[in-house]
Amino acid sequence: QFSTSLNLRVIYTSPIPDIEIKTQTLPEYLLPKFEAFGNRRAIVDNETGKTYTYLEMRDAVIKLGSALHRLGYRKGDVLCMCSTNNTEYALLILACVTSGIILTTTNPSYTSAELSRHLHHSGTVGVVVIETLLPLVKETIAGDRDLQNEIKNVIVVGQAYGYRSFSSLLDDDGSLYNENLDIDPHNDVALLPYSSGTSGLPKGVMLTHMNVVSNLQQFRLLSKSVADDTSLCILPLFHCYGMIPILMGVVQEGGVLVTMPRFEPEPFLAAIEQHRVTILQMVPPIALFLAKHPMVEKYDLTSIRTPFCSAAPLASSLYNEYLNRFKSTLVQGYGMTELSPVATLDTMESSHEGTVGFLVPNTNAKIVCEETGAELGPGKIGEVCIRGPQVMKGYHKNAEATNETIRDGWLHTGDIGYVNDDGCFVITDRLKELIKYKGFQVAPAELEDLLLTHPGIMDAGVIGVPDEDSGEVPRAYVVPKPNQPLTQEDVVTFVEDNVSGYKRLRGGVEIIDEIPKSPSGKILRRILRESYAKKD
Ligand code: 4UW
Known about the structure:
Layout: E1 2-4, E2 10-12, H1 26-37, E3 41-45, E4 51-53, H2 54-70, E5 78-82, H3 87-97, E6 102-106, H4 112-122, E7 124-130, H5 134-142, H6 145-150, E8 153-157, E9 164-165, H7 166-169, E10 189-192, E11 194-195, E12 203-208, H8 209-223, E13 230-233, H9 240-251, E14 256-259, H10 265-275, E15 279-282, H11 284-292, E16 306-309, H12 316-326, E17 331-335, E18 342-345, E19 358-359, E20 364-368, E21 382-387, E22 394-395, H13 399-405, E23 406-407, E24 410-419, E25 425-430, E26 435-437, E27 440-442, H14 444-451, E28 457-467, E29 471-480, H15 488-498, E30 509-511, H16 525-535
Parallel strand pairs: 3-14, 5-6, 5-7, 6-10, 7-8, 8-9, 13-14, 15-16, 16-17, 29-30
Antiparallel strand pairs: 1-2, 3-4, 10-12, 11-12, 12-22, 17-18, 18-19, 20-21, 21-24, 23-24, 24-25, 26-27, 28-29
Helix pairs in contact: 1-2, 2-3, 4-5, 8-9, 11-12
Bound molecules: ligand 4UW.
The site of ligand 4UW has 24 residues, from helix 9, strand 17, strand 18, strand 24 and strand 25.
């Protein structure tokens, strides 16, 4: 599982031999597969029952690509999707990646300020939005002359007077589909999801065609998803997990993907039963619900063959509770938006408590000592670094963050872990500042920037603190301005009023005299974390 040479380099590889990955664009990779899967069902909308076969999906994707060209979108233009999960979302992702248009995605719970930053930062020139979020998009663009100039169209999924509907694009004859296809697989960007990476504000992650084409082939060898699989897409399509392993991972095999807009306990369980779901991709809070909630007993969930859990640490107690209830192990994986996203996977046969499985093929890893950079052998804990064709091209318009994250071809994940005797990876901690609330990214820097705009706050630091239900919750440390009355409630309410619900300060607020900082001015979050741990 690893090789050590005389100069003590310790590079880990996959137990699966490397595969040959042909240089291809996403349309070259995906469209022939859709053709071959023919009249099998591909995507089903759990809300409306609307179903597309593979041929219908291929047809729709080509029409959308052509319609977007007719509207003036050219290769490399950025289109932004603001929506909860539905079949239109799946079609738009596939249409963009097969027609040279770059898709960026937002969390549907974004506030206007968050959306505004995303649209500006990504260089979005067109927006596709569900009817219910149209007022937010209108408000965001109306208040901003630059966005009014930049954004050519707002296309609505549903109906809205004065707006082009998504369904009208599907009436296109498809004749302009080929116009944008001069794609360079290694350099042209297919997807631009956002992630804060190891530090700072959310950044656009440039995933090229070959990043995605490679990762789709790398993980299929371990995930062993098959054509008669049905997956319930409950995790958001705006996140890399939804877009790539769930949507594209299922449709590259000829399986069925059932889209669901949000997690609600009864409809979620009913959908698994009704569609006889075989692969269920989860995050730990959903696994927790399945393992613990009494309501689960009322439903027949025996169709689930692969319960897959990723995006945040899975507690051993939860792994065991799931095993006790379902007599089946949770299969884990480890990844990161910047890795397109899969680095390691368990298999049903190899899954065991506490590990995130083996490296996928064509991937190297090293575990480095945080202080010295030395490569560490099996069992030794350090920062996980990954090298492979799935490593992003870089951060959009941010060479500095790119160069900090990718060094000599190695992506520094900011995660701490080790390799056990079986060659399985174990993630033990996070070096980076990122907070994960129910698998969603919360960037402390974003909350700190916001807190500093409060008239009564002089300085602020934010950390994640452990929480049984959600993994982690954000907690703020604030220094009030002299002679300013500032209460913890003021701070909580201020944040609540200005950010999406998942970023709220659920971990509380502490008013302190000084934020601990390094000589270079970096917040010493470790000290805040230690002070929190001592409180227990
Ligand atoms: N255990 C502990 C884990 C784990 C973890 C991630 O939001 P991002 O950028 O991306 C993700 C993507 C995860 C993913 C999606 C699809 C898939 O199949 C797969 O399995 C291989 C994984 O979460 O956040 C990345 C950060 O989230 C943490 C870790 O800190 C990582 O850097 N993380 N998975 N199993 N922590």
